[in-house]
Write a structure and sequence with these properties.
single chain, 163 residues, Pnp Oxidase, Chain A, seven-stranded antiparallel beta sheet, 3 helices, 12 strands, globular
């Protein structure tokens, strides 16, 4: 028995509200990243995060190679960051970091300054399933910005929630 097709599944997922986060990986001209709406907490003890990353993305091969990544949740004022990291206008690689302020914590991965929450992580495990990899990260450092609101993705569009 066959299940629903990919388009039907994607259409059914659109009404689900997703918190937008940016996963950053790499360094120098090999820096890149992507927007995810699948990033969640996995465990508090030890602190672990989980995100699903498409294996066709430019970020995927660098996650295993560099062994660390930044996860920055996006605030109400970060739609332009989301658009760059989504590749709007053909923006790729290190150019995705332009127009925003970044910092590093422990691993050297970039964290978005002003993000509601940002996590500096090492790769704990990568589990391949279908088209994606379940990325599990061990949190090494945390940065927070109270009152930054949230950027969410709902019904095919970015929307803001004020803090």
């Amino acid at each position: 028995m066959e299940g629903p097709g990919a388009k039907e599944f994607r259409d059914a997922m659109r009404p689900l509200v997703g918190n937008c986060s940016v996963i950053t990986v790499g360094a120098g001209d090999r820096a890149t990243g992507l927007v995810v709406t699948s990033a969640i907490s996995l465990s508090a003890e030890p602190p672990l995060l989980l995100a699903c990353v498409n294996r066709g993305s430019s970020s995927y091969p660098l996650l295993a190679e560099f062994g660390c990544f930044g996860w920055s949740s996006l605030g109400a004022g970060h739609q332009a960051v989301a658009e760059r990291f989504s590749g709007f206008g053909g923006v790729k690689g290190a150019a995705r970091y332009e127009g925003a302020d970044w910092e590093t914590a422990v691993t050297g991965a970039r964290l978005l300054k002003g993000a509601p929450s940002a996590f500096d992580c090492t790769v704990e495990e990568m589990i391949d399933r279908a088209t994606h990899t379940i990325l599990i990260g061990r949190v090494r450092a945390i940065r927070q910005t109270p009152g930054a609101g949230a950027l969410i993705y709902w019904n095919g569009a970015y929307r803001t929630l004020e803090g």
